[in-house]
Amino acid sequence: MRVVVMGAGTWGTATAKVLVDAGNEDVTIWARRPELAKVINTEHVNVDYLEGIALPETLRATSSVPEALADAEVVVCAVPSQSLRANLTSWTPHLGRDTTFVSLAKGVETGTLLRMSEVIAEVSGAPADRVAVLSGPNLAREIAEEQPAATVIACVDEHRAAELQRAFKTDYFRPYTNTDVIGTELGGAVKNVIALACGMATGVGYGQNTLATIITRGLAETIRMAGALGAQLETLAGLAGIGDLVATCSSPLSRNRTFGARLGQGATMAEAQEATHGQVAEGVKSCASVRSLAVKHGVEMPLTDAVYQVCHAGLSVGDAVSALLGRSIKPEVYE
Fold first, then answer.
1. Residue 7 known to bind ligand
2. Domain hosting residue 78, numbered range
3. Where does sn-glycerol 3-phosphate bind (predicted)?
4. 10 is in an annotated binding site
5. Are residues 262 and 133 in the same domain?
6. Catalytic residue among 191, 285, 296, 330
7. 72 labelled as ligand-binding?
8. What does the pLDDT look like over 159-211, one tens digit per residue?
9. 38 tagged catalytic
10. Is residue 102 part of a domain?
11. d(CA 107, CA 286)
């Protein structure tokens, strides 16, 4: 099949490499900047996002949207969550009727509170059975280095999920299938917010007990949200849930954790952005939309609220921690 990865950032580039390594013979990556596309084609590297990683020589890059999408059977959406709608709107005139979409973006759209698969379906007109999501403990650099990893490909059409599973499988990257798109997406969206909280705690100087507490209570928040939206709760016990949460909250490769750590060290939002080298920390914007989604469905998410208050309401990290510790005590129940 002809596969196109729309977006040449860290994860988009790593995913394109996976697809070539999986044996797909026609893989194209779209880069917004012509100069980056040229470097990928001629030097087979992406020094802007994956320095030191050799890309397959058969991976073709272009900065032309019509050229990238011509006859594309599978379109992998690898742009940030909050820019997905605008990008899709410009891509749609060049898409075929039977295109299968795979979303790599993890977030909830600001304003509409839609998940990324819902944004894709709304803008492109594609039915839900042609929209899949890929999510799991997938730190891009480790995968690009061919370190063993697994992921989840979720689609309501289990046969399409299985086809995509074969398209993404390599010796180092193992996809599992799932029909629970809601749970898979919520796990990916909320974990970015919790990773910010873990980063803040690390920046302040707290240790492993604190991080374990945040991760565990963050999982509880995710489970409550997933239950309210009709997801299968066992999804959150898998790769797209606890797996992704642990990886993102624990690794210095995580942009969200790095961003949060800088805030915990006393940096401003602008200074924290510099620490991620201009790359998007999805949780910064998603914490507002995840919080709004929680309010809409009556779900209690104190960690998410604390991260929102720090990122968007001027609350200090110290005051946020004090507020969390000062909450009333209660049984440990997932209600």
1. yes
2. 2-179
3. 106, 136, 191, 244, 254-256
4. yes
5. no
6. 191
7. no
8. 999 999 999 999 999 999 999 999 999 999 999 999 999 999 999 999 999 99
9. no
10. yes
11. 6
